[in-house]
Request: fold
Amino acid sequence: MKKKFIAIFLFAILSLNSATVFADAAVGDVIVTLGDNLTITEKEAILAEFNPPENAQMIVTTNAEEHKYLGDVVPAGKIGKNAISSAMITYTEKGSGIKVTTSDKITYITEQTYINALVTAGVEDADIQITAPKNASGTAALTGIMKAYEVSTGEVIDEDVKKVANEEMIRTAELGEEIGDEKATEIINEIKREIAEKNPKTTEEVRDIVINIVNNFNMNLSDAQIEKLVALFDKMKGLDIDWNQVSNQIENIAGKASDYLSSEEGQGFLQGVKSFFNGLIDWIASLFK
Reply:
């Protein structure tokens, strides 16, 4: 009962104070962003799942904000009328990069897709947890995370950068449905690397980069898929995006993956995967004996 009262009290204060700006986030600072359409019970459950410290900042993300940044790339009916995806951001040491963990309730946007979109938006050095009270696409969470970053750091993310980060999230997810999430992420990251390195000036130069990279991955994308990627990165090249930071973050992410796979834990994981498939093959073979 006491916990319930505290949760209700927190959100009463939150609803009055959601526009307050807290600048200069420090290592260890925590901010929670919650969907505006959550019920009190759902808010309590999400807070229990996140278990934020008592001094955590709290904000809400509305469905209107979600439509503002996704309306040009996702049909209104698909965005829906409720904002329920929620996130907790914990700021980490400089250079540590972005780490995202999603619950099994986030069914459409992958952890890596969030990371890539946040890198584009200029967000860095944070551990982020994302969840929802029931199955949700998770598209609202990105808007909430960027809003939380602005509130807690005092840094304003350009509106066009927010829109293109959201579009990147959707295009990556769409591509993932066709060729797999991992390959989609690799292609998007490789295009970013090339954009950062070559600094294309025209749409045709962007198109050449996209087509060359897709071909390098031996992927047979449709003309429509290619043009969506060209349109996305054509918008990116004209925005105030720190491409050096984007490139460094991508290398940081790749380096961490490589380090993990080289570690004792990573080798154990790979061996476990190998043993599983060997066992599976043996089991299938036994069916025909």
In short: The two ends are 62 Å apart (CA to CA). Residues 264-286 form the longest helix (23 residues). The mean pLDDT is 79.
